[in-house]
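Appendix B, record 7
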Amino acid sequence: MVGREQKHSVAEPMRLPCCRRFFHLLGLLGLSLLVLACQANPRQVRGEPPLISLENLILNTHSATLQVAVRNVNDRRLELASVQLNLVLDQRQAANVDLVPINLGIPSRGRDVFDIEVELDPASRQLLTDLTQDQRNNLAWQLELVFDPPRARQRAEASGFLHPVPGQPGRFR
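Structure tokens (predicted):
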């Protein structure tokens, strides 16, 4: 009997490598499925509004030129036919432009910049002059654009602070 007990106790450790192999194979199968799932096509982004930012504001003699950057976060090309613009400087209405044709095509996940000339009210021009003459550190801005692509209207908003560009009078970022 003693011999049989020894044989039985010797046989139990022999089963342990089989169980380990099974769990290793199960783990490899799970890891393989996870890798396959990650390689599947990512979710398509559609219908998201574009992101905007005010790149530059250039003060001209009688007007101002806004350089507006538009980023398309969608996986489809974005065609923009016209834009309506509302600019606020230091919580004051600075410029309001009704639908202006821009005819801009932005590739999927791409970015483009367009210029638009606006008439600033006298108070806003004075705020920019004060900024140029170091009477202010910065100037808060808020920009709202309503894009009117051929199929649907999209609204985008951005805000930030303007600072004078060193060595370039009348130019702000």
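Remarks on this record: The longest strand covers residues 92-106. The radius of gyration is 31 Å.
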